[in-house]
Amino acid sequence: MPKVTFIQPDGLQNVLDAEAETSVMRVAVSNGLPGIVAECGGSAMCATCHVYIEDGYLDGLPEMSEVEDEMLDCTASERCANSRLSCQLPVVSDLAVRLPDAQV
Amino acid sequence: MAMDAGTLIIGACQTGVQLAASLRELGDTSPITLVGEEPHAPYQRPPLSKELHGGTIDVAALSLRTADWYRGQDISLITGERIVHLERDNDGGAATSAGGRTFRFSRLALATGAAVRRLPLEGAELAGVHYLRDASDAARLAADLAAARDVVVIGGGFIGLEVAAGARAAGKRVTVLEAAPRLVGRAVAEETSEYFRAAHQRRGTLVVLDAQITRLAGTGGQVAGVELADGTQVSADVVLIGVGVVPRTELAEQLGLAVENGIEVDEHGLCSDGRTVAAGDCANLPNPYVRGSGGRVRMESVPHALEHAKTAAAALLGRREPYRMLPWFWSDQGDIKLQIAGLSAGFDQTVLRGDPEADKFSLLYYREGKIIAADCVNSAADFMAVRNALARGQDIPAAAAADVGARLKQLTREPAVA
Ligand SMILES: Cc1cc2nc3c(=O)[nH]c(=O)nc-3n(C[C@H](O)[C@H](O)[C@H](O)COP(=O)(O)OP(=O)(O)OC[C@H]3O[C@@H](n4cnc5c(N)ncnc54)[C@H](O)[C@@H]3O)c2cc1C
């Protein structure tokens, strides 16, 4: 089972097992991990599952849709080059993401 | 004082689960029992109308939390038990389920949600006629849809249109019958209603407005068609009736709590007895963004359920955190993504931005010169800009808003001081 590492803004790390093809958001929410809100449940509708992809993991992620791109422009924490919405990222292999300071 | 018997949460879906989670986040270490009548562990409903095309529904994949999470949080999740009787005393009270189990509690939360509104139509009992609220409904509907050729949706609200869009995309002949003169009349203005009519027609769905249904006709116990008052017969292998929901208030009524289009709560989620809380689809609450209706509203959306549950959890622990969320909503109809920010009722001006015929536009609503809401179709950036502006009390001046060359985020201003 692939593993997703979630790094909180304070540096605390959680490593969670992920069923293949579930989204990074779902892995976080179903395990009750703080830092990902996901008000809309995964439809790229709310931009509250924003993550920063850690170095080395950006390649191999699915391309960003126009909707995700537009939503990322309005996140609560600053958008960076490695910003993604975690609901749009199915887990295929190990991944590490950093959580922003705020989602709403 | 009696021992703390903990909190009983009745209703185990979006609201109930969030209530339990929020209690723990707020540091509550007393027992929490979450009881729901459905056989499944709590799951999300939105995909039920949007992901029916596969012929099946995988409820486990829609689970809100893992089994480990409930264990780790020490939340006792009880599925398949319907609470039928409630009693209150000075220490809390007791609930009894249809299966004969008794649950004692010190604190009580009602998260009973809503049930579909049923139509007293002749033929509604025929095989092939469906309602859609829970995963069992969705599983039956998905199986019937897979084998159907003619699909009729009664009711042109969001859920009906989502199912229609999916069925049409899967190559079915789809007819939407709406009794009102326009689609989704409860949620959007005429311009957006007209867009949905035209957009679904462009995709090959037949939309009939002002439809007066006389009966559902069947052969051998299986639905075969829908008859309209003007004599029209519409063939149907599957009929989905989606005409809204009614809040589940029966337990609140047993306790003598105030009920009016939902269980009445104050801004903290407290019921009329001052100690029970109610939240989510079952509750009728004050919201600062509501104009008219005494400033009260009952909302049916996931973002509301989550936020309202947080408010109610705080109230159970004696904290007072007034609910002030800006209402927002979305609907996914095939390739049409609608996002709504704010409540448009009471508007006196609209501004159209973009092109409805290209399935990409926003309709901005203004009242007394200030923005109050927006319907955004395939325009996520507009939605986020309006949502953020409204939540912060800012404005997006109408004069410049129609220009798609300008970004709404850049047009956002502090309000003119009145
Ligand atoms: C098909 C569909 C699509 C939707 N799409 C969207 C969407 O795109 N976006 C959006 O924001 N919202 C959507 N919604 C609405 C959203 O799902 C609801 O607002 C949300 O589920 C409300 O959560 P709730 O927990 O308050 O109520 P509910 O989801 O209704 O859950 C209440 C639970 O309580 C249980 N219960 C009730 N009475 C008892 C009792 N006496 N004893 C034990 N258990 C009891 C019920 O069985 C139910 O499981 C959709 C709803 C449906 C049905």
Provide a concise account of the structure shown.
The complex is a heterodimer of chains A (104) and B (418). Chain A is of the alpha+beta class and 104 residues long. Chain A has one domain (3-98): Beta-grasp domain (Ubiquitin-like (UB roll), Roll), CATH 3.10.20.
Commentary on this structure:
The complex is a heterodimer of chains A (104) and B (418). By secondary structure, chain A is of the alpha+beta class. Chain A has one domain (3-98): Beta-grasp domain (Ubiquitin-like (UB roll)). Helix content of chain A is 13%, strand content 20%. The longest helix of chain A is centred in the first third of the chain and has 7 residues, at 24-30. Chain A is globular. Chain A starts with a strand and ends in a 6-residue tail after the last strand. The model of chain A has no long low-confidence stretch (mean pLDDT 93). Chain B is an alpha/beta fold. Chain B is 24% helix and 29% strand. Chain B contains eleven helices and 26 strands. Chain B has helices at residues 14-25, 47-50, 67-72, 135-147, 158-169, 190-202, 250-254, 302-316, 380-391, 398-401, 408-411, and strands at 7-10, 32-35, 75-78, 83-89, 92-97, 102-105, 107-110, 114-116, 129-130, 150-154, 173-177, 206-208, 213-219, 222-228, 233-235, 238-241, 245-247, 263-264, 277-278, 283-286, 296-297, 328-333, 336-342, 349-355, 360-367, 370-377. The termini of chain B are far apart. Classes of the chains: A alpha+beta (104), B alpha/beta (418). The A-B interface holds A 22, 29-32, 34, 39-41, 43-47, 66-67, 70-71, 73-74 and B 21, 25, 44, 46-47, 61, 63-66, 68-69, 72-73, 302-303, 306, 328, 330, 332, 337, 339, 378-381, 384-385, 387-388, 409. The site of flavin-adenine dinucleotide has 36 residues of chain B, from helix 1, helix 2, helix 8 and strand 22.
